[in-house]
Amino acid sequence: VELKSSNKNLHIEQFAKPGTALQVAVNGSKFVAGCFLDEAEINLQRVEYLSASSLREKNQVFLENKGQRVRLLLTRVRKMLNELGAGPSASSSSKPPVFSLTFDESKAPKIELCSKGVQVLPTGLFDGS
Fold first, then answer.
1. How many CA atoms within 13 Å lie on the side-chain side of 123?
2. pLDDT tens over the chain, length 129 residues
3. Alpha-carbon dihedral angle through residues 33, 35, 2, 11, given to the nearest 10 degrees
């Protein structure tokens, strides 16, 4: 469940925004729980629910556009890693190098080798494997 709150006495549809649809798509929530608070944001007045499936349908074009942007970004990142000699064809060692992905002022991706000692979480840490 994705939680959203508001002190405006509106309807659950106020949470049916593209950004919320993207959050729900990424984190796998089945519902958005809209928590409506009093004006002081202290007391819970009511809770309404919005299904993730209806949120996806309502924002389908937005999500498709984001997916296309991510696909293009991943293609570019793979190419950059291959140029650095760290792509899928690179020799397999016990500890592969760790890279940092950032974006410059024009929002173009930048990949840099991290300093020694930087580690990443092990594969499967959160999925129970």
1. 1
2. 777 777 776 777 777 778 877 777 667 788 888 888 888 888 888 888 888 888 888 888 877 777 777 777 888 888 888 888 776 555 555 667 788 888 888 888 888 888 887 777 665 555 554
3. 60
The residue whose two tokens read 């993730």 is 52
| Alpha carbon distance 30, 25 (integer Å) | 9
From first CA to last CA, the distance across the chain in angstroms is 23
Alpha-carbon span 55 to 32, nearest angstrom? 9
Strand partners, 103: 109
Could you tell me how many helices (H) and strands (E) the chain has, helices first?
A: 3, 5
**H or E segment and range at residue 2:** strand 2-6
